[in-house]
Amino acid sequence: MGGVRIWLVTVGLLVAMAPVAAFAGAPAPGTITAAAVDPDDGPDPGPLDGADPGYAAGDSMYDTADPLYDAVAWPEPEPAGPVSDPAAPAPDPAGPAAPAPDPAAKGCSAGTVALTFDDGPGPYTAQVLDLLARNRVRATFFVVGEQVQARPGLIRRIVAGGHRVQNHTWSHPNLTILSPARVRAQLTRTTAAITAAGAPKPTQVRPPYGAVNGAVLRAMTAQGLTPIRWTIDTNDWRGRSAAQIRNTVLDRLQPGAVVLMHDGLPSARTMIRALPGMIAGIRAEGYCFGFPRARSAAAH
User: Fold this and answer.
1) 121, exposed or middle or buried, with CB in 10 Å at 0-12, 13-18, 19+?
2) Is 262 a catalytic residue?
3) pLDDT of residue 293
4) Mean of the pLDDT values across residues 107-122?
5) What confidence score (pLDDT) does residue 294 get?
6) Integer Cα distance of 218 and 190 in angstroms
7) Average pLDDT, the chain
């Protein structure tokens, strides 16, 4: 009987302690338990480390909170390694330009086309300059002040190549939502950086996103800057193929066309591959290369 009595006492104690144990392990009111979490939520991915794989976190090239920013996914970075030499005899990765170029056939009978490059100088700007030199093309570079400060030597190379350096603001904001004082600072700091790097004082400005209003135009005019937009947007930064970039330009050629491309973004790697066929096709249609004029200010 003594053994039975001890067994009964032990069972009674365990039963009495069960509610205490359950209470001690219960979550506080309002706590979400593991069982209550939707398994489709997945783990917390943590903070973003920069949308652009070609720039460090915190770079302000694009303001993703800006309503004018089109938040499409950046292309995956390509494998490391040098970009293939566009002057090599291998076929143009974008495919052959049609029709085949014959520089002597038409000369400049169709007019001029302006190639423009934004957001640099960047890691690919030197390769753009090499390609332009081999093809005897002059272009306009709308540069960002932060990048000028980081790479002043490339500004000197741009000028030495016969190209023009123009203002694209200090950090690429939407100027229309800034105060007049901040708009002025975006423009003046960039102009100062350009001239300090050895380029002539800019006379043109490309407003980020093409966004202007009355106050922004007045600030530009006060600094002797004419706004320049574009007539052909290659959308090269969206991860398009070299063929798509090239064909967008060749399909929309017209006298005085201003072509928008980006040498300061990771997408420049593909844009460089599109350039040989683009240049050949433009020349084959009877166009020469020039610089954008003020009348492009009203184009989008």
Assistant:
1) buried
2) yes
3) 87
4) 94
5) 73
6) 17
7) 73
Summarize pLDDT for 139-154 with one digit per residue, the tens: 999 999 999 999 999 9
Q: All domains of the chain, ordered by start, with CATH?
A: 103-298 (3.20.20.370)
Catalytic residue among 92, 118, 236, 263: 118
Annotation says 168 is catalytic? no
Single out the catalytic residue among 163, 168, 172, 262: 262
pLDDT at 9 over 60: no
Q: 194: which residues sit within 8 A by CB, 6+ positions away?
A: 143, 145, 148, 155, 165, 167, 201, 202
- DSSP line for 18-41: HHHHHHHHSPPTTPPPGGGS-GGG
Strand-pair category, 111-120 with 164-167: unpaired
Query: Left, alpha or beta for 49 (phi > 0: left; psi -120 to 50: alpha)?
Result: alpha
Closest CA to 65 of 48, 43, 42, 44: 48
Could you tell me which of 101, 136, 112 has the C-alpha nearest to residue 284? 101
Percent of the chain with pLDDT over 70: 62
- Report yes or no on whether pTM surpasses 0.85: no
